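debug: dumping io for the single-chain case to check the tokenizer round-trip. Nothing else runs in this session.
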Amino acid sequence: MYFPDDKELNQAFTGYVEMRKQMKKPMTDRAIELAIKKLHRLAVLPFSDLMDNKHAIQILNQSVMNGWQGLFPLKEQDADYQKKKGGDTTGTNNQSRKSAADFYEQFMGTGDGD
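debug: decoded output
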């Protein structure tokens, strides 16, 4: 059992591992460990170290539905989710970012956001 505290998330992850087996690309124990870490990184809640389980399930389902070997940010919702996290919505690190103070003001609603 990969996620004993969340039956739905565990079922989604198990489905992902099973899909990999059917693709004849089974995951080693180490690959599973790395996939769980990547899933956590992709679905972490804003300003937290906790994983958004519903977002993680969507990520897993996206990979299964598309037959992808790996885990990737959600295609259709990624920009909105990254905005909530305060992350880079372009997928690159070369874009300029707002200062932490500006972001805090925008997030907290204490400033005009720009």
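debug: round-trip ok. The two ends are 46 Å apart (CA to CA).
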